[in-house]
């Protein structure tokens, strides 16, 4: 399936270099958005999927990958040797598509709003999403049946989980189909809706069917658990714990004092699970010691009632955990997300600029608050931050605009546009129009029109004649990738 170990490389053999004996699937995060890719890796060899064109085709990639996984597992059963298989199917992410046989039972059962966002333009997102869950359920049934067929079910343990909570990507709102039940938020949130996912473990004859546990466990507990099952020692450097005692109902179960998460998008987030308590801190990039929200999950699993003011001692303890658990990284930061050097040749020679400190965004077509890519980022003087319009289909497409109050009348000779600088081309402005006025409600004719190059480089829009006004409006009429949204790293103004 999709290999997250391959770091978006163009080398399928990279998975083998990381320790796997055999690999079949996709190494690119972007390629895994499509369910009908044109090729698939078998170790370090490319194989063409005839008839596939990305959005359409004959071979549904997760069906192909599961068929190969079942073939491989069958071979292992014949050799009677121990094996480990990691199967990472992509449904229900991110295009909403599934073979019709899995979707058909749900068609006509929901009120549908077609998706017009950046992913596949699905006419029936809810029915398709349900069909994708149906697909996963059916394929898991085929997997367990294969283990039974090989006669190795009683000696094989299966872990099933999800990588994160639900997402609106693809056009199905988070709240649709009650995907999160009472939980708050979804993918990219550190509320329970983003990080609390199902973990189902199956081992006939060893794990009692139907038993449940409310002990919090996290991904870093998998390695110690797997090592204990394999009779190996857990290295001292991990703070993960084995949950084998809970699974088998034998021995004393160690427990975490606390669990910690951090996330580098949307302004930076931290979260701690400490007994019944859950602490969440937002906007860490701008305020590392900002307020911590506190929730009692035994009474408020939906994290609706912030009780931080009532339990300052718990908040203080959680703040200490956040400080203790966070480790500085040279590659990620709460402020910038993935840190990368910005090549000097991306920027035009330094020139006198109009001071941006008193500027204020007074109107915008939309902004991606879920990603922290708000319009104000386009005028904060920092090219690493970005403005990005809504991308989930909830907002209409082009034209998009941003209107800025400059604080006083300025005489402007040129506009400089810095595209987003985070190694993504999504949202680059193509055709544009620039307006300048002394009225925020009447802009008249544009002072500049044209089309920007599809590039990371800063580009200058020089006016035919200087324009004076207190308000500037930039309108994006199209996008270089033919996407319905737009983005921008920075907007700069040059004086007369």
Any overview of this molecule?
The radius of gyration is 26 Å and the shape is globular. A hairpin with a 3-residue loop joins β10 and β11. The protein has 496 residues and is of the alpha+beta class. α2 packs parallel to α4. Strands 12, 14, 15, 16, 17 and 19 form a six-stranded antiparallel β-sheet that branches. It has a four-stranded antiparallel β-sheet with strand order 6-7-8-9, covered by helices on one side. A three-stranded antiparallel β-sheet has the order 1-2-3, covered by helices on one side. The longest helix has 26 residues.
SSE order and pairing:
Blueprint: H1 13-17, E1 24-25, E2 39-42, E3 45-48, H2 61-79, H3 100-103, H4 125-150, E4 158-161, H5 192-195, E5 199-202, H6 222-229, H7 244-248, E6 259-263, E7 269-274, E8 277-282, E9 293-296, H8 312-325, E10 332-333, E11 337-338, E12 360-364, E13 387-388, E14 400-418, E15 431-437, E16 448-451, E17 459-476, E18 487-488, E19 490-495
Antiparallel strand pairs: 1-2, 2-3, 4-5, 6-7, 7-8, 8-9, 10-11, 12-14, 13-18, 14-17, 14-19, 15-16, 15-17
